[in-house]
Amino acid sequence: MKLTLKQYFNRSLVVLFWIGLIFGILYWPRSLIFREKKSINVFAWGDILDPSVVAEFEKSSGIKVNLNFYASNEEMIVKLKATGGEGYDLIVPSDYSVEILVKENLLKPLDKSKFSFYSNLNPRLLNHAFDPDNQYSIPFEWELFVLGIDKDYFYGKTINPSWKMLFDPRVIDYKITMSNDPIQTLVLASYYLYGPIDSLSDAQLKKITDLLIAQKQYVNAYADFRADYFLATKNSAVVVSSSSYIWRTMRKFPFVGYVIPKEGTFVTIENFCIPQTSEKEHLTYQLINFLYSRDSMKTHFDTYGIFPATLDVMDDLEMDDSTRSLVSMSSPELRTLHFARLLTSQKNIRDAWVQVKTD
Q1: Are 119 and 299 in contact (CB under 8 A)?
Q2: Residue 93 and residue 140: Cα distance in Å, rounded?
Q3: Mind listing the pLDDT tens digit for each residue in 279-335?
Q4: Rg for the chain (alpha carbons), in Å?
Q5: Are the C-beta atoms of residues 235 and 187 closer than 8 Å to each other?
Q6: How many domains is the chain partitioned into structurally?
Q7: Contact in structure between 275 and 93 (CB atoms under 8 Å)
Q8: Is 232:153 a contact under the CB 8 Å cutoff?
Q9: CA neighbours within 13 Å on the CB side: how many for 271?
């Protein structure tokens, strides 16, 4: 059938329309074709961000928060090194991990002018050796290393709160649960033998390794998380753990308690950092500011027992005088803050840890 000039013209317009639409989809800016949902990817410990607080932020901001979890600082560091931090917008490393990530050029400097809470931060949590000017990290919460104890086991016995409860065979007649973090464990053993030092000689590292190998006969388990489980199930009479785990367990099991070694203990600070490769800082800063609100900080303390990094929330927290003294860092045990740190190379630590685990 022969087409009229008008029909030919109309059909040509239809063909041109579809060609134009296809090329538009392929080459026009994505934001003009689709409205992408705002989202950020967070890489964190599994029990540090309360899901209800995150859900409230998503509802109020319209920003989707994709949570990804790691079980240890070492796992987090390995993944960030392997990916260059690609795919993550916010991470929550512990103090010594910040220093490692900075040296690997994996963190982006923070713009503190975007923080609405900075003046409320506890100054004792700022400007430490792992990030002297807090250029790359901001403290979110902190905890203590404490010795969790089975009070039933020690009933009627005199307790001398000391690191000897973990390392001295003249004291130990019970099972122990130790940290499965090699850096933390070597630091604790080093502190027991040598006190606060900045580095280890080869001879000192060998003595620490020998100490940990000798300790194994008393060790029931090495646990990154839930060392408190071994207390609650009465498999261990003494565990080394973060304060939050012990206090959560104390709420359910009255026979669980804790002591702080008289020689001093260690503080661990969990920090917010932005990976170098993130392109969503404008969204990430919104989440960070939300998480530092008084309601958020109170919820995280109530849920997880973690100590808030801000001081303005202190009046909102329900605690006894002893706990309040610790949380405010006015307790005598916290006159000096000790932090886990790299006392030797990561290779030396790995080699020593393999020897401890396999010997």
Answers
A1: no
A2: 10
A3: 999 999 999 999 999 999 999 999 998 899 999 999 899 888 878 888 888 878 787
A4: 26
A5: no
A6: 2
A7: no
A8: no
A9: 29
| Residues written for the chain | 359
pLDDT tens by residue, 136-183: 999 999 998 899 999 999 999 999 999 999 999 999 999 999 999 898
CA distance 327 to 198: 27
Do 227 and 162 reside in the same domain of the chain? yes
Q: Looking at the structure, do residues 124 and 225 belong to the same domain, yes or no?
A: no
DSSP state, 217? G
Three-point CA angle 139, 348, 243, nearest 5°: 35
Helix 95-103 crosses helix 73-83 at what angle (to 10 degrees)? 20
Residues 193 and 245 in one domain: yes
Q: Is position 279 within any domain?
A: yes
One domain, residues 316 and 248: no
d(CA 340, CA 269): 10
| Residue 246 burial (CB count, 10 A) | 24
Interior/surface letters 266-276, b for 16+ CB within 10 angstroms, e for the rest: bbbbbbbbbbb
Say how far apart CA 206 and CA 191 lie, in whole Å. 14
SS3 content of the chain, % helix, strand, coil (to 5): 45, 20, 35
Rounded to two decimals, the pTM is 0.79
Helices (H), the chain: 5-27, 30-33, 51-61, 73-83, 95-103, 164-167, 182-194, 202-215, 227-232, 243-252, 281-291, 294-304, 321-327, 346-358
The residues, ordered by sequence, that sit 6+ positions from 139 with a Cβ below 8 Å of its Cβ are: 121, 122, 125, 126, 269, 270, 271, 309
Whichever domain contains 116, its CATH number is: 3.40.190.10
Q: Hey, what long-range contacts does 330-338 have (CB within 8 A, 24 or more apart)?
A: 333/260, 333/264, 333/265, 334/267, 336/196, 336/264, 337/124, 337/128, 337/267, 338/191, 338/196, 338/264, 338/265, 338/266, 338/267
Cα(258)–Cα(242) distance, integer angstroms:
10
Six token digits for residue 240: 């080394």
> Of 253, 268, 166, which Cα lies nearest the Cα of 212?
166
